[in-house]
DNA sequence: AGCTGTGAACATATTCACAGCC
DNA sequence: GGCTGTGAATATGTTCACAGCT
């Protein structure tokens, strides 16, 4: 499946879920409008699912959700760990969308001994030693990194050593990782700077 | 400038800044390695800056930083507002990277009357009425949206009405905006789901 | 009539490969 | 020798346009 398509599938899923149960059927045109994409693009993307829309009608909304979830590997819940329980880590820990999206936060970890044991959204913050054990015990493959930039690489190395294969990195630091590990970087400064470019170009 | 290039410029800037003052000169090869990009790609990207690297030597690091910042429209600081001071909004308010990145948080706003006046990182949370006034008074063009999903569209409409032209949206909701307004969506569930796809494909 | 699925056309992005300069 | 800048080649992504099904 093309990279560009993979990156749009969650968007379609989000659109379909947001529509609610009012519609049983959705056309590529309607979905395209909500998602802000060309309708041919939607059809081509969905064709990779081996999806079967009905000509003259559209796609069955619920069946399409199931197919999207299957294609994205969301049939079972992935266990994930969150490392670094500062403001951002706490914010993510409190996020209510993990479960419906297909993920299960199994633990929060921090290097600061004074935080260990503190409650956050039904969890108690655990130590880095426990992190390594938990990853191995629960076969965790995905980690969310919300440490300060300075600690990110060190933690990442440990995660990789423990068997983590996918990292979602919110720390403003570029990680050096083996290419067996997939990483997505979410960076506030980067996003704002991209907006800045278009904002500046507008007036120029 | 190509969209793909614009989205890489902040990355280069981040790499150059992270290098510190040890190097006065950088080759496309070195930068490419740190950024995880092909070196021809780096050179082509930088050629849009009207940059002048020196053959046989490379680029002057500091001059390149200046050129990148200029190209991204970061010569002056952009005033930005943050709307929705929950966990995530607080996390962003405490982020130390705004100033060096070229942004200046001028205010935090929340719809919840019980929060108004609370201190967060040197600011006091203000009301939505003040938001509208502040935007007009300071000519603010960029807003960061960290409200709950349910409130996002309503707030966005207000922002657009007040004159905001760029929105960085962390709320898990797709905004319907006039096409004069540029929006970037940062969505945790989406990012994890993309990782899920690659994680699942790995074993399949 | 209304929609999907898809080949063909087009557009964008990446990489190669090398001439040209320091 | 070592690097940049860039045309040409390739790869990827998007959109058009329409045949084909219901």
User: Helical amount among residues of chain A, as a percent range?
Assistant: 40-55%
Supply the helix-strand structural class of chain A: alpha/beta
Number of strands of chain A: 9
Series of secondary-structure elements of chain A, N-terminal to C-terminal: HEHHEHEHHEEEHEHEEH
Task: Say which CATH homologous superfamily of the largest domain in chain A is assigned.
Answer: NAD(P)-binding Rossmann-like Domain
Largest sheet of chain A: 5 strands, parallel
Whole-angstrom Rg of chain A:
20 Å
How many separate structural domains of chain A? 2
User: In the CATH hierarchy, what is the architecture of the largest domain in chain A at level 2?
Assistant: 3-Layer(aba) Sandwich
Low-confidence stretches of chain A: none
Descriptive report:
The structure is a homodimer of 204-residue chains. Chain A is an alpha/beta fold and 204 residues long. Chain A contains nine helices and nine strands. Chain A has helices at residues 3-19, 28-35, 39-47, 61-71, 87-93, 98-101, 128-138, 149-162, 188-203; strands at residues 25-26, 59-60, 78-83, 103-109, 119-120, 123-124, 142-145, 166-169, 182-185. Chain A has a five-stranded parallel beta sheet with strand order 4-3-7-8-9, sandwiched between helices. In chain A, strands 1-2 form a two-stranded antiparallel sheet. The longest helix of chain A has 17 residues, at 3-19. The model of chain A has no long low-confidence stretch (mean pLDDT 96). Chains A and B meet through helix 1, helix 5 and helix 9 of A and helix 1, helix 5 and helix 9 of B. Chain A binds a DNA duplex (22 and 22 nucleotides) through residues 2-5, 27-29, 38-41, 43-44, 46-47, 52-59.
């Amino acid at each position: 499946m093309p990279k560009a398509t993979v990156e749009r599938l969650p968007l379609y899923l989000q659109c379909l879920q947001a529509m609610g149960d009012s519609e049983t059927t959705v056309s590529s045109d309607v979905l395209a409008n909500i998602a802000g994409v060309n309708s041919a693009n939607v059809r081509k993307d969905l064709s990779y699912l081996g999806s079967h829309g009905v000509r003259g009608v559209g796609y069955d909304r619920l069946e399409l959700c199931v197919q999207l979830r299957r294609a994205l590997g969301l049939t079972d819940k992935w266990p994930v760990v969150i490392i670094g329980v500062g403001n951002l880590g706490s914010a993510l820990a409190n996020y209510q969308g993990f479960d419906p999206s297909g993920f299960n936060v199994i633990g929060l970890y921090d290097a600061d001994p004074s935080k260990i044991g503190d409650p956050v959204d039904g969890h108690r913050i655990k130590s880095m030693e426990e992190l390594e054990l938990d990853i191995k015990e629960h076969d965790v493959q995905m980690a969310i990194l919300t440490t300060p930039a300075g600690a990110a690489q060190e933690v990442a190395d440990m995660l990789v050593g423990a068997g983590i294969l996918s990292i979602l990195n919110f720390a403003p630091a570029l990680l050096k990782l083996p290419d067996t590990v997939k990483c997505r970087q979410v960076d506030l400064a980067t996003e704002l700077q991209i907006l800045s470019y278009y904002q500046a170009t507008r007036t120029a």
